[in-house]
Every structure is written in C-alpha cells, then in structure tokens.
C-alpha cells in the first residue's frame, strides 16, 4: 500500500512511519524539516507545511490512503488540525484518494459529553476546540473516513492488546501507547469495518 502521512515527525507520526515501513508499505510524509525522519528506501519526505496546498498535494498524489497524526503539544493549542483538514480533504478529492484515518481526541465531536469531556475542556480547551473543528470538517467533507479517539497517549511499548469501538467508554485513568495507536490506525486504513465512524481506543 502507498500511504500518505501527515504529522509524521510527532510521537504518533514516527510510530506510523516506522510501522508502515516495517510492514512493507511505501510511505510519503510531509515534514518541515526532512532531516527529522531517518532515510529509508521506501520513504519519500516532502518538505513543507501542512497549510501549503501544493505541498499537501505532493504528499497525497498516488496514495492509496491518508493517515493524519497531527496535533500540538502546547496546552494553548492552535488550529493546526482543522486548518490541515481544509487542505488535505480537497486534495484527496482532486486526486481521487478516498480513505482517511485521523487522530481525534476522546471527548471531541458531536454528542461527546460527560466527565471526560468536562475535564479535558478545562485542562486543554484550545486543543479540544481544534479537534472539534477537525471532526466537523471531516464529517462535512470527507468520504471514507475514520476518526480515532485515543485515551491518554503514553510512550509505552507495542502490545497489540487494546480495546476499540464507537461506543467504548473511557475514564480519566484510561491509557493507550502510541505504538498500539499506530497499529490500530494502520489496520483501520486497510479495513472497511470502521468507515465513517469515530472510534475510541484504550489498552
């Protein structure tokens, strides 16, 4: 499979790149600093910013599917996820690429309320607003999409043992390793089981 990856230099993005290459896929990734990703014969790194439509199109061209691990580590957040989807989805349509798997946030999106949403909205309100807007854009403009809503992401090792589901309920202590999250995203990309769904994941 030929896979386009956005957010490839972040913690989850690096796992996606590494696991995709280890599984024999061809990967094209966007990076502001191409040197941030180690070279590989099946990895093409396109220099640029996700808000640049030309660079985004170069990453997506020829892909069978798109993975987005975009986000921010700053609690002040920003609009990178929503802004990126406003570039990625039109490029996918123009290039005939239909499948998208994107990292959202547990507690984001329509109908997600309760203690978890209240807590995250108090601690990281800007990040949650960006994830909400990302979901709105994907639902309105996407085709064969899956939004993955992880529990708190850790640096733990790959286990292959995790729970997923559109109705999976998580608590404030729920966790999932970035390696397991990447594993699920890659599996979802090649599956039709969770198309047009928002799916939670936790160990």
Please describe the topology of this protein:
Elements: E1 2-6, H1 11-22, E2 26-31, E3 43-47, H2 53-60, E4 65-68, H3 80-95, E5 99-103, H4 115-123, H5 125-141, E6 144-150, E7 152-154, E8 163-165, E9 175-177, H6 178-189, E10 197-202
Parallel strand pairs: 1-2, 1-4, 2-3, 4-5, 5-6, 6-10, 7-9
Antiparallel strand pairs: 8-10
Helix pairs in contact: 1-6, 2-3, 3-5, 4-5
Quick take:
With 203 residues, the protein is an alpha/beta fold. The chain is built from 6 helices and 10 strands; from the N terminus they run E-H-E-E-H-E-H-E-H-H-E-E-E-E-H-E.
Report on this structure.
The structure is a single chain. The chain is an alpha/beta fold. Helices cover 36% and strands 23% of the residues. It has helices at 11-22, 53-60, 80-95, 115-123, 125-141, 178-189, and strands spanning 2-6, 26-31, 43-47, 65-68, 99-103, 144-150, 152-154, 163-165, 175-177, 197-202. The strands form two sheets. The protein has an eight-stranded mixed beta sheet with strand order 3-2-1-4-5-6-10-8, with helices on both faces. Helix 3 packs parallel to helix 5.
